[in-house]
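Q&A log
Question type: sequence-to-structure
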Amino acid sequence: MRVRRTSRTSKWLPLAASTALALAAGLIAAPAAHPVDGPVEIVVDGNDVRADNVNGLTYKGLGLLSCNSTSNLLMDYKAEHPERYWELIRVLFGGKNPLINHVKIEMGSDTNTSTGADPATMRTPDEPADASRTPGFQLAADAKTVNRDLKVSILRWTMPEWVQKEWDKGTGQDEMYTWYKETILDAYQKYGYMVDYVNPDTNETRNPDESFIKWYKNAIVTDTDFSHPRYGIPVEKRKKAAKAYHGIKIVASDENQTHNIGPSLLSDEQLFGIVDAVGYHYNTDDRREGSPGSDTYLPYTRLATGENKYHEDKEVWYSEGTASFGYTDYRVANTDGPGGASTGIGGVQSALDLANRLVKSYANSKRTHYIFQPAIGSFYEGAQYSHKELVSARDPWSGHLHYDAALYVMQHFTQFARTGWENDTNTAGIWRTVPEASYSGVSGTENVDGSNGAPSYMTLADPRRKDFSTVVVNDSDRRKTYRIKAENMRLGDPTMEIWETRGPDAGQAYDANLKHLVDEIRPDDGYYTYTVEPRSIVTLTTLDKSRDKETTRRLPGSGERTVLDTDATGKKHDVRDSVLYADDFGYEEEGDVEVGTAGGTRTTSQPYLASRGNQPRYMVDQTGAWEVGKDADGDNVLYQYMDQSMKDTHAWNWHTPNTTVGDFRWENYRATVDVSFPDPQGGLATLGVRQQKGMAASDAAYNIRVGPDGTWTFYEYGTVIAKGTVAAADRYRLAIEAKGASITAYVDGKAVHTYQDPTPQAEGRVKLGSDFHTTAFDNLKVEKIDGYAPYATALTDSMDASVAYSGAWSRKAAFGDAMDWYRSTSTSQAAGASFSVPFTGTGIDLIGGNTGSAVFDVYVDGKPIAKDAGTVASDKRGVTYALRGLPDRAHTATFVLKSGTIVFDAFTAISGDVDGRVDTAAIRDSLAEAGDPVPGDHTPDSWALFDSARSAARAALRGQKGLDTLGAAQIAHRLDDAFARLTRKDATTS
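Response status: OK
Response body:
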């Protein structure tokens, strides 16, 4: 739509004189239900803009939750690519209209409570707290350098075992308080900010512990001890620290689905006076039980509006919710809509679904703050809940960051209002939400569905009534007209800007319609009238944002996602040597790191390990206390410290300790690590390779485990393949060499078992593991294998715009599985259906969860390369068909389905970086066997296949660049198959 620009110099008198602001005698009225057809009429009445409501109706905007390993790799981004890290900080937290106003930190206990483990700040009661182990505290410190008003909150889910043991006895309040207090004060000392909110209760409870909430609040306000040496607070700073500490607010109760704390606050005056903010998870609705006016009828609405017997308003949060699922730039190719149409940026679990959650949770339960779990996905893909974020940050060695288009959708709420927390004098100008001009009729309470075409809109207004913005979400396949009337407002220029985000039209680039100004309109007969396009979000605002650089700025590009291939230091990218990655845990190659401090007023330079609480590089912990420490010789080694005294059985995802490192694209490599057992009570050390998904040590496809008695066991995943013993020792060197289907395990340099896997896992990372004893690891090294391609260079999703399809396909994104790449798949069982993929390299792997029923004809660069090629049964993220042995250059491969069902998730392109000699004897044998058939004696189709295979074999023998052992074997096999398929012309006519 063409933008119509109008002058901004005209004046417009208010529609009516202002009136005194007062709460209505009854509950704030929501708009009446709108008719299914016809325009949606909205009245934005200045008398409904409640400037005196400073808690419940102020729009706090958005927050993020750091927990469960979701932020683990961020500190590596900061160290390896500081320019990208600080750019991320500015994008999410900076500017006049910050996207994120709050960092919520779920305190870790070294156990897996979702996608992984966050470190415990205190592993024993005697250990001084160390907040720097937990990346969320430092993320908040860095965010405060661009937004000092950023809020920080903490809560717990599980707790360290020394607290848990006492808590299970029915005591433990003092231990819990000590853990919280010492962590809070350590963060205060290190970073210069005091936590703003604490939820003393457990995360996602269904039965709020109201007595402990009261006990904890009393303990905070009556605490006078800030001089203990453990706190490290200088004398001159103790008074200031005490004042800040006593001002900590209470949030309750982070329930999941249940709505119990709201009625409790309304019925318990003491609890009401203690709790400052209420929040619950994964549900947009209020509670509606009993008669109107009862404590169980719309309790959260009454808390937010102040229409309760205490005549006070409270903050109401959507205190944990999802971000969009998958990549929006991929899901626009889905067929989830009616008749197999695309839902664009919409559909269930999409960016528009997320926008509707914000709108509906406000319209139905007056929640003015939404916290993403997570906003940043900085953990390795393949863990539970992968690809459920706004920003993906998983390759710190490359600096690659993916900013999802859902960020533009969220900016429709944050860039057209002043968001945040109102100050004590009510002069910050935080915009108020307007209940009477907000409504949502979309279906669902968690994964909401706007396909019914019902109106969904939310209005925010300047408390001075000089401007307002109405955000409209249309996640249906129908156009929807809105008519907005402003009354009792003090608007100046009546021009309204229309900002829109939606998917591309046919022939457009993916990002053609992301958050852009599409129109400027003025009222006609008192109404602003605008028709909202299908599958879109628009913000209709009286603000002048057309020339605002922050509003018009595009998100940063992703950057190249280079594979992890370093020199022997593990830091410098180097594809020329034999090392893929190495870590001796000394980190002499690492420089100092900049850290936000003094409450965001400055940054300070800190040594690498000190800045990150001694956390190792590039490791994502699934369970366990993994930390760099000194051995008996004073050298740095990696320890897993969680022993029998710290063992926690309250974790949601219970596993023995394990951590993951590396690149999911690694294929053929040898991993080596030194292990030792300093715990006299016992121990077990695990080394695994080709881990692609999962959160246990046994999720590495091939792993060897050894104990101090010399007993070793070799596993394929969790299945025992072989056992044996070596001489008992205090330390061992473990290694696994994975080349194709051949896997060899080593102890102290000696091969103890070789396994030929009939259905091998082709790619994946390295895992280290232990049992619940202190265990040491050192000199981790991952090396290339002569004659084998070490990795794939790129992964491309089946939804990528570069993939071309013909025939009948179902391309699904809604309700996608986290184990599918980007939560999307493309599926067909129609004979003749095909897809073509461009790539650069020597081959590709087709990835997806399959039964092995699919049979293809395969073409490369227009030439036949395989007929009736079978696939193998494969798990999600597994390889169902591997193509190798192509020249190392750009190609296009086409797969034509002959029979069966193919689930195509993604493909990887194989590197041509191959070191060492490759045995081509099999190719020579196949050429000799084929001889020199006469072209005219055979049918054209069979000859074309044979000629293509023979030409490839001859080229390989002339010294084909990038040829590896697996490629040579495939070339020989394809020639043998093509020779067997040669069909004489006379055979077809007889």
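Response note: Residues 173-191 form the longest helix (19 residues).
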